[in-house]
TrEMBL record:
Residues 34-114 form the ETS domain. InterPro entries: Ets_dom, ETS_fam, WH-like_DNA-bd_sf, WH_DNA-bd_sf. Keywords: DNA-binding, Nucleus, Transcription, Transcription regulation. This is ETS domain-containing protein. GO terms for cellular component: nucleus. GO terms for biological process: cell differentiation. It comes from Erpetoichthys calabaricus. It is found in: Nucleus.
DNA sequence: GGCGGAAGAC
DNA sequence: GTCTTCCGCC
């Protein structure tokens, strides 16, 4: 752990640094229960939910296009049949202090992941060396963002 | 809609 | 600890 980031060795040739909040050891308690931000990323990853929730605007920014449906799906996952957007959004607001999310002010149903710290350390694998996976120090486009998250989701 | 306190489930 | 539930406030 360096400067609020964890460095994870993905393979012998690739290391990734990302914020502490994105890192959870397998042995940590509660790791069996899905977390809301994992679930949000899971939906964002699937094209079939583009009309429900989608990346939009700035990098890491997403819009909940159908709040009732997102709440319904979250309720199903957590076996909470009375889940609604009012309650789900309270859970999202708890992420503000944890610096996992923040609100995009003025944009309805729009939140943003705090991913400014995410960087690739060292060189990625050879087949990745010329791919968009090679990230800039503090910025990356949406394509890189999604690819990185596929890795993070595999790790988690 | 969005915010955050308070209490409680697990 | 991570939400879930409820709610007063803006």
């Amino acid at each position: 752990s360096v400067a609020g980031c964890h460095i994870i060795k993905v393979t012998v040739a690739c290391r990734i640094a990302f914020p502490d909040w994105a890192y959870k050891p397998e042995s940590s308690p509660g790791s069996r229960q899905i977390q809301l931000w994992h679930f949000i990323l899971e939906l964002l990853q699937k094209e079939e939910y583009q009309n429900v929730i989608a990346w939009q605007g700035d990098y890491g920014e997403f819009v909940i296009k159908d709040p009732d449906e997102v709440a319904r799906l979250w309720g199903i996952r957590k076996c909470k049949p009375h889940m609604n957007y009012d309650k789900l959004s309270r859970a999202l607001r708890y992420y503000y202090n944890k610096r996992i999310l923040h609100k995009t002010k003025g944009k309805r149903f729009t939140y943003k992941f705090n991913f400014s710290k995410v960087v690739l350390v060292n060189y990625p694998l050879l087949e990745m060396a010329n791919s968009p996976f090679l990230l800039a120090q503090n910025h990356f486009n949406e394509s890189n963002f999604l690819k990185l998250f596929r890795v993070l989701l595999i790790l988690s």
